[in-house]
Amino acid sequence: MRTYLECVACFLRQALDASRMATDDPAIHERVLRATLQLAADMPFDRPPPWMGQQIHRLLREATGNPDPYRKIKQDSNDLALSLYPDLHKRVNSSLNPLATAVSLAIAGNVIDFGCLTNLTQDEIRQAMEDALHTSLDTTAVEKLRRRAAAARDILYLADNAGEIVFDRLLIEQLPCARMTLVVRGAPVINDATRTDAEVAGLSALVPVIDNGSDAPGTILESCSASFQARFAQSDLVIAKGQGNYETLSGDHSHTIFLFMAKCPVAAADAGCRVGERVIVHDRPHCSR
Amino acid sequence: MRTYLECVACFLRQALDASRMATDDPAIHERVLRATLQLAADMPFDRPPPWMGQQIHRLLREATGNPDPYRKIKQDSNDLALSLYPDLHKRVNSSLNPLATAVSLAIAGNVIDFGCLTNLTQDEIRQAMEDALHTSLDTTAVEKLRRRAAAARDILYLADNAGEIVFDRLLIEQLPCARMTLVVRGAPVINDATRTDAEVAGLSALVPVIDNGSDAPGTILESCSASFQARFAQSDLVIAKGQGNYETLSGDHSHTIFLFMAKCPVAAADAGCRVGERVIVHDRPHCSR
């Protein structure tokens, strides 16, 4: 997905929100904001929005000297998700269609996105999970996911955020784990999941975990390591979680299923759905509810 | 009022909204947006937000070759306001406190601000005027305005927007017209009132009308003509209508009464009131309801 002109004002809001979250120093807030303006003035709009997210959060880490400003937020999200996990695990397994319930919960977990939703509360996360148990997704799209996963020899599951990755476990447990590899970011960026979060979520014991070698809040292939690029090319099914992975991979890759919650009007319009909607997109950017 | 870091994302939104209102050409939208980013990267944040508004709308007029992109919007606002004027005029004169009613209506007219509220509808304007008839302002602040106007020898009334200027007439009729001069912008910018609008509103027959020689959406004194600057310095009371005049004159001038509707969180916080609130500020930026 390209960067739309509407994204630009949102980049500035994100740069300011992130700076304020990371430090109380107003000189750093201003420095990061001005540097973001300068970058945006010349940015190639054919790049996806997470390209700018990557630049902003590099600036922020450099300006604050803090390599992981969202560490506490990630821990809190993991703790909350782990406290909800046992009950949700039971509810998945006792439901009429465990895969559909797990998909619904995993996508609802994508609400934990501190790039888009700076002021997200723990109550809102709990509510999103509860809502996911009571509203169903398009069963055709879920069944297509089931068939594609059953037929695939080599599945990559691209995780998105900390906390959310615990809810991904509910879905991964319903899929053919023996043929699946979990992929996390190569370095901290916003609240995106890294190896630590996969470990904390209990996923390292379930599937092999690799990282993509990149600090982009999405999957920008040219920013990823050569080994991940090779792994991506050889897999025959990619399950890409989250809006950042949709924004960076949609349109280009025919072996990808996108699972995400649309959190801004631009991504929602691109995917043909409404803001707040949980979507399953098979390969192409269209909305399959 | 200085430019706050929050204003920057809003500048970008305004640049994009204004470009799209002025032309369907996406190349112009992108050109104006990039130029705004470049300007904002280096802007002095001790300048008020309308300083950037002035730059953005110069860029827009230059890029489109249209010296007055809001002409139709201004005409429509004037037409609507003139259609409401006769009834409102009667309601002012039959009210228990005609000055208070006129102040309330004049401030409500400040909703007609296409810089802040791009998608404002005629129904919303009608509703704002109706609301103003049923909710009262702080009577102490109104009585202080009455006393100060009665005591002043030379009153400048700084108009803000087209359409709104018709509602200003309701207030001007309640004030000592013989000692008052109406001031409009020196050139078109957004939907701000110029000499044409004062004429259409029927104000030219009531009070002398001058322009400030500037194309800023506010009153940036150093951008105004020398003759206006002299006139401003010699007056002993300035009644400044609208958020743009508040943003450019507040804090610096002890002989000014600000009447406006707070339309963004930044201006509302600066004035100590809520978004959507109609405020009277005597001289200093504090909220006197």
From TrEMBL, chains A, B:
Residues 4-279 form the Damage-control phosphatase ARMT1-like metal-binding domain. Pfam families: ARMT1-like_dom. This is DUF89 family protein. It comes from Eiseniibacteriota bacterium.
